[in-house]
Design goal:
Blueprint (H helix, E strand, L loop, with lengths): L1 H7 L13 H8 L7 H5 L28 E17 L2 E22 L6 E15 L2 E9 L4 H8 L15 H11 L2 H11 L3 E3 L11 E3 L6 E24 L3 E23 L9 E24 L4 E8 L2 E17 L4 E5 L5 E2 L3 E5 L2 E10 L3 E11 L4 E3 L3 H14 L2 E13 L2 E10 L12 E11 L3 E16 L10 E17 L1
Antiparallel strand pairs: 1-2, 1-22, 2-3, 3-7, 4-7, 5-6, 7-8, 8-9, 9-10, 9-11, 10-15, 11-12, 11-13, 11-14, 14-17, 15-16, 16-18, 18-19, 19-20, 20-21, 21-22
Helix pairs in contact: 4-6, 5-6
Amino acid sequence: MKKLFMSILCLVSFGFIHAQDLTDALRYSSGETQGTARFKALSGAFGALGGDISGISINPAGAAIFNRSHGAISATNNAVSKDAEFGGMMNNRTVNNFDMHQLGAAFVFRNNNNSPWRKFVVSLFYEQLQDYNARFFAAGTSNNSISSYFLKNGNGLRLGDIRLLPGESVTQAYGDIGASYGYRNQQAFLGFEGGILEPENGEEDDDNTAYTSNIASGSFDQDYNYLTQGYNGKFSANIALQYSESIYLGLNINSHFIDFRKSTYFIEENNNAGSTINRVNFENELYTTGEGLSIQLGSIVKLSDNVRAGLSYATPTWLTLREETTQYLSTFNDAENNGYTLNPNIVNVFPEYNLRTPGKLTGSLAYIVGKTGLISFDYSRKNYGNTRFNTGENQLDNELNNDISNNFKAANSYKIGAELRHKKFSFRGGYRLEESPYKNTTVVGDLTGFSLGLGYNFGNSKLDLAYENTEQKRMQQLYQSGNLDPASLNNKNSILTLTLSLDL
């Protein structure tokens, strides 16, 4: 894609047109530490436990629980299965992704003086927050056509601003229209030059702003292929302290990295009477990169020899994001045995924008029975309604942020984990419930999951294995505009994690 951009360089910015929506806001605001196998086996309920590299991502004070310097590396296999119901049909797609998703170390420095500050710990670690590798396929019959997408974008725009000029190529027109008017006009250009949009006043009137569709109403056979790739990762630097025998304090400074790719391919066919377009192929690609910063503060207090309480706060993450898109459209008329192909061969490069994701407050309790076992509980609250876009365009920001406030809400999450130790073996299990960030929970439902794990202690090293299964339902809009039917998805993740940890 970048080679293509360097060879064409037609577009610089779309200062007043956007491709962002609620899906983007949620994608980059979500995400939990993938973590070590022990962390996963307890469903991430580590806020009051500490003594685990990934637990530091929940509560920075957890690093001060380490008695010796410690390192860990983890690998995971994530099987992402999506059942898609669309147009009366059900389809399933599964993607398996193997990744080295976690690496870190904590270095313990003891204070041998009589100071109440007993311990100082420095930790450095990388954690993956989200694995974007997934796909689904939706196919079925609908009464709503892709023409609604092009009509929604085209109506209100001058015909002269969305058409080829004499002697102009598709590449030149698509690039000039994007640079002069923006992304919406490009969509209308594809619809008109693809034969889908028909000007109400005829093709000779460049001032025409109203359009009808050359795809007649009726029944439509539709296929939709959706593929995403990439990751949301975080590198953290941690400082933690132990005060006296019962107080632990910590700070994380986090650097975030986002690399996200999405490809969609839509096919529609019809034999409706009056249609002069009977087949449509519409392909879109999105590439997003970004980086950001967040801070975490945390504390753990030993209330007794057996009971610990933890409290931590993660600030909002301030992200800077950049997006590129490419498109392709072809249409066909069965009666005349001809059609249109529009392949602009251009990368739309949007100006970078800022996104502030919501902060999170976590309270934790843990009951530890010596070396026999433990039980731990975490409660977190995250207000997704506080997510905010900053594109530099006040009107656009107001529209996007009002949509967020009207659709998102505060979501609670509950995690519980337990561990039982027998000689050198540890047996673990956990459960978690994360509430939907949407006020309308049919859009995105609650996430539920359970986990199981096994660990073996070799002495100075440990090998841990965990299995986690999560499930969440959602309605997937195929495009931002138009009235195409959504696909009903049931997302299931089966995650197997293996961790080797060493006392250094």
